[in-house]
Amino acid sequence: MGGAVSAGEDNDELIDNLKEAQYIRSELVEQAFRAIDRADYYLEEFKENAYKDLAWKHGNIHLSAPCIYSEVMEALDLQPGLSFLNLGSGTGYLSSMVGLILGPFGVNHGVELHSDVTEYAKQKLDFFIRTSDSFDKFDFCEPSFVTGNCLEISPDCSQYDRVYCGAGVQKEHEEYMKSLLKVGGILVMPLEEKLTKITRTGPSAWETKKILAVSFAPLIQPCQSESGKSRLVQLPPLAVRSLQDLARIAIRGTIKKVIHQEAVNKNGNGLKNTPRFKRRRVRRRRLETIVFLDKEVFASRISNPSDDNSSGDLEEERREEEATTPPDSKPEPPVNFLREKVLSLPLPDPLKYYLLYYREK
């Protein structure tokens, strides 16, 4: 599913298009989408398609369309410190974005059916932690992934504040999904061809909202073991952070406050984001998309309301841009202020690198 917005040249332009089409509506969700490059979760030979608003599948690896992830993130109403369970966690792309919002005191668990995809997600998570400057801009709740069928979660597992299922849920499994949710929690899942938001308002009270029509591959039913018993999935334990880890979180938080205050004193308005250079706006086209899900084909024709833009307006925007943008201008690479500050501290190198989570850059 997808094709609701035009493709971007890079991750930022994709997010610009999702904002313009009102799929991304909140600042927290926008920040999370911009912080993690969607292309990093593609195999190298398919990265040219990363910024299209289309689902992608290769073998067992699957990514939903950006417009779907946008609606999911908005519907979950994420806040720092919440617990999140991702059923069908896949590449870990969604779980990592969620982790940027949950912060260091949240809980971030994922269940994935295929062991090779679980391993792929762990590799992508490690790459993000080691190399992305976004890791230092946020307080991250690192996802934990386990392999198993999400319909076989152990009945003694903890309930969660937020739950998302990334596969089509049959009506007979609706109550099972609800049982995973705390009172006051939110469940988002594809139910009967509709992306559905269910809020648990009491021990046996629910509010249901249909968000949009979707087409997802259905949940795979559990297979019994040779003994005839199901294989229960044990979710990661709710770990208690060590004093050493808590000290690292507190020190990094204090340094960030110092950096912010220094910037306020210097220019009066805090740290500024590296400016994104204005790109020529491309006229939105009527899109036809065909998405393959395993052996099924889902086809959709989606028109964009901005098809009515006049060519004169577009030409005027193009001339304005050419007049104001130097031909060879390139954005300056972002500065990792936290890293620079930590490395300048009069501390032993092992402690500096511990504060930086032993990251490469």
Q: Name the strands of the widest sheet in spatial order.
A: 5-4-3-6-7-8-9
Radius of gyration, rounded? 22 Å
- The beta-strand count equals 11
Output the structural class: alpha/beta
Give helix and strand order, one letter per element, not per position: HHEEHEHEHHEEHEEEHEEHHH
- Tell me what portion of residues adopts beta-strand conformation: 15-25%
Biggest pleated sheet: 7 strands, mixed
| CATH structural architecture of the domain at 65-238 | 3-Layer(aba) Sandwich
Here the CATH topology of the domain at 65-238 equals Rossmann fold
Fraction of helical residues: 25-40%
The 3D shape can be described as globular
Notes on the structure:
The chain is 33% helix and 19% strand. Among the domains are: 174 residues, Vaccinia Virus protein VP39 (Rossmann fold), CATH 3.40.50; 52 residues, no CATH class. About 8% of the residues have low confidence. The protein has eleven helices and eleven strands. Helix 2 crosses helix 4. A seven-stranded mixed sheet has the order 5-4-3-6-7-8-9. With 361 residues, the chain is of the alpha/beta class. Strand 10 and strand 11 form a beta hairpin. The chain is globular, with a radius of gyration of 22 Å.
Blueprint of the fold:
Layout: H1 11-20, H2 27-35, E1 56-58, E2 61-63, H3 66-76, E3 83-87, H4 93-102, E4 107-112, H5 115-131, H6 134-137, E5 144-147, E6 160-165, H7 174-178, E7 181-191, E8 194-202, E9 205-213, H8 243-267, E10 287-293, E11 296-302, H9 311-324, H10 337-344, H11 349-355
Parallel strand pairs: 3-4, 3-6, 4-5, 6-7
Antiparallel strand pairs: 1-2, 7-8, 8-9, 10-11
Helix pairs in contact: 2-4, 8-10
